[in-house]
Amino acid sequence: MHQQLRTFKSQLDKLKANLERSKLMDGSQQRQQASAPQDNVARYQQRTDRIDDHLNDAQNIIARTEATAQNINNNLADQREQLINVRTNVRSVVDGAELWRGKANFCAVVFFWGAG
Questions:
Q1: What distance in Å separates the CA atoms of residue 95 and residue 106, rounded to the nearest whole number?
Q2: Could you list the mean pLDDT of each consecutive 10-residue stretch along the chain, which spans 116 residues?
Q3: In angstroms, rounded to a whole number, what is the distance separating the alpha carbons of residues 109 and 116?
Q4: CA atoms of 7 and 107, how far apart (whole Å)
Q5: DSSP string, 34-61
Q6: Distance of CA 69 to the CA centre of its chain
Q7: Whole-number Å distance between alpha carbons of 43 and 37
Q8: Which intervals carry biased composition (Polar residues) (predicted)?
Q9: What is the Cα–Cα distance from 32 to 35, expressed in whole angstroms?
Q10: 0.85 exceeded by the pTM?
Q11: E strands, 1-116, where?
Q12: In whole angstroms, what is the distance from residue 69 CA to residue 62 CA?
């Protein structure tokens, strides 16, 4: 009988301790729930700030990429103009060489006809 009484008393002490622990946990959870909306707002604000930073970085990258593309486009246009000028110069040289060759042939013909 004494053994059962001690067992019951031990179980009662455990139940009281569990009840106290449960009360403490409930109070802690209520405080967490009370502060949870504030924490959520802060977390959402931080997340929004990070997203804004990422968007700003992306916009800066796009702007730099567009500027680089514009520079490449300008360089290609300049090189195209240079190639057109080179082609014109080559044609002038070829035409000049053909003219000189034609004059040389004419002089040779005149010389041979005149000498003969």
A1: 16
A2: 74 81 69 66 90 94 94 95 94 77 68 63
A3: 10
A4: 138
A5: HHHHHHHHHHHHHHHHHHHHHHHHHHHH
A6: 15
A7: 10
A8: 27-38
A9: 5
A10: no
A11: none
A12: 10
